[in-house]
Design a protein that fits this description.
It is built from 4 helices and 6 strands, in the order ββββββαααα. The protein is of the alpha+beta class and 180 residues long. Strands 1-2-5-6 form a 4-stranded antiparallel β-sheet, with helices on one face. Helix 1 packs antiparallel against helix 2. The mean pLDDT is 92.
Length: 180
């Protein structure tokens, strides 16, 4: 169901997040995200001077490389357009993600590492989006992993629909159902 029609309004800001997933020739997986912010009007930036409408206020990219166990093997961050000279300096800190496993509670882990002054809000947002993409990218090509009776699939208990005590898990993942 679409949103109801809005009242008359002026478009001011657009944020675009594009995420893509890839299977690499070496057997690993790449998840790439790109975040751009633009305004619909010209404005003065104290650090960058006059920015024209549709000129990028932010252009930031992140690539996570994962193995078949959803463990991050490599992280690349690029902060190409930004409002302040200090922005790109946080990029190396995201190497702390290497070795972590994408699984439920990922968002909380990322916030613990990079929330507030410890990170960049935009790159942290990309990390969260890319982790969610991991299951969309890898899951359909790894049905044995997702239906394993040995190891709980990492996406279960990751949202209300995949609650291990709920009807979706009971029907599609009966081995992992924990309801009554």
């Amino acid at each position: 169901m679409p949103l109801p029609s809005p009242v008359e309004r002026d478009h001011l800001h657009t944020r675009r997040i594009r995420c893509e997933g890839f299977k690499r020739a070496d057997g690993l997986w790449d998840l790439e995200g790109r975040l751009t912010d633009t305004k619909s009007y010209d404005f003065d930036s104290r650090m960058r001077g006059r920015l024209r409408a549709s000129e990028k206020v932010h252009l930031m990219r992140m690539r996570l490389t994962l193995d078949d166990d959803f463990v991050i093997r490599e992280v690349r961050v690029s902060i190409d357009e930004h409002p302040y000279p200090a922005c790109p300096g946080i990029s190396p800190d995201y190497q702390q993600l290497v070795g972590l496993r994408v699984e439920p509670q990922w968002s909380r882990k990322v916030q613990e590492l990079f929330g507030g002054l410890k990170g960049c809000l935009h790159i942290t947002e990309l990390a969260d989006n890319l982790a969610n993409m991991a299951f969309q990218t890898m899951g359909p090509l790894m049905p044995d992993m997702l239906n394993s009776s040995e190891n709980k699939p990492p996406h279960l208990d990751g949202c209300h629909a995949l609650d291990t005590s709920g009807p979706v898990v009971q029907e599609f993942y009966p081995t992992w159902y924990r309801g009554e």
